[in-house]
Amino acid sequence: MTYIHPPRYGPEWGSGGVFGLTYYKGVLYYTLSMEGEAHFIRDDIEEIYRFQHLGPGPASGGDTYNAVDVVDDEIFFGGWVHNPAVFKGKVNASGEIDFRNKYSHVHSYNINERSIRLLWSESIHDEYKWAGEISQIIYDPVNDRLLLGRADGHVNLGLYSLPRKGGKLERISDVPGLKGSLFLDYACFDMQPNWMTGIDGVQCVDLSSGRLIKYTVESWSKISVDGGGVEIRGSGYALSTYTRYYHFFRGGVLVGNPVEPCIDEPRFIRLFDFGRNPYAPHRSNALPVAGGILAPFNAYTHGFLHGYRESDQALVKYYNTIVGPSVLVYIAPPQARIVMALGARVTSMTKKGGEIIIGYSTTPNLGGKDATPVDAGFKGLTIVSEDELLSSQPPSIVFRVYGWMVGDGFFGGIPLTGYRDPYLVVYTGKPNKLLIKHYDAGLPPELIEETSVELKEGRNRVDLKGYWGIVSFKLENSDQGARIYIVLN
User: Which top CATH class is 398-488?
Assistant: First the structure.
């Protein structure tokens, strides 16, 4: 097994990562993106598929959303591929790629036969646009089919079904859905009609009747445990447990019953929300571990260096400011607990016995004119013990937040369980007031208390020892020059 993959040829934006990590029936599968390589490892023998069913190569891409599921003796994997990849070159420091050979795809790997089949692919062969990538695969055990989520692209977005043996794609919903999960006897996906805003609700397919049920969030502040809204709700990943559907996105998690909200109205729990900074659970996956949820939140999933317009430079400041390390959070209601701090970003995870295998990348996906002929990141695998992860003390962490990121909106959502001496250091340019909301991750989640702290001009220390759940914050008056350090010891 290769534990570190250095930068190699793979024309695209920035870096991909180790995606789709799955250990199943003695086989460890992952796709190395942007190199466009699907790896299948067993007994220290590694087979590499370079998507030759789609073109002559060399390929780039592969998958950047963890589109994978397993059925019987097959591993189904999907995503997108450039084959052959075409780098258009650079002007000064800005680079572009050609999208005419970009394909969306679904493949299957037969474990017994050690064979790969292309089940479906699609390309619109446009220089600047592409068909919706496959970002989620959910096996429908009632109808023996694959349900596919597609939200990243320009055409053919929504929810689709594909026969398990391959064949014609059938559209189920025209509302873009990026990520999803089985929930009871439904398959639920986010609704993301505007990718710049993020998710507006949840759409669920009844596996028995085929009926499509939609739950739309009319007001995020009304369903928020801390009473505040949330902006830029880019979808992350989903998982079902405790007869609830959990959908993680930038800003936190939506949890509840989107099919029958009268039984359990979905609620928004703010987690690691730092305003317009893209710290988020993007391009990763959650794991069910010991009955709870192991969920990553990433420090630097998306970056931005060279824009198309002069006004794009404002985004550089938001995207490239690192707030803190990536973290793994273990949710076992009513607690949410930080169990590990890591660098850059976690791209996928899987379990193998008592071990958790973590895929990572040191470099973000980039945007604008940031294309390069190589994957710019170091990517690899880290293995940790499940027992040690769940029994250890939470790591010491500092988050650095600026007033220009958060304005006068709510931010934070920091789990304090296990910390003995957590506190804030706030540097302000004027007297202000800090509102603190204290809540839990229970089912349903509950607001425990709220307090207000007076801030003087200059340096302020705010003790958080009295809080045991999750805390979020709000400056009464926006202070663009404020610096806020969240110190967890």
Answer: mainly beta
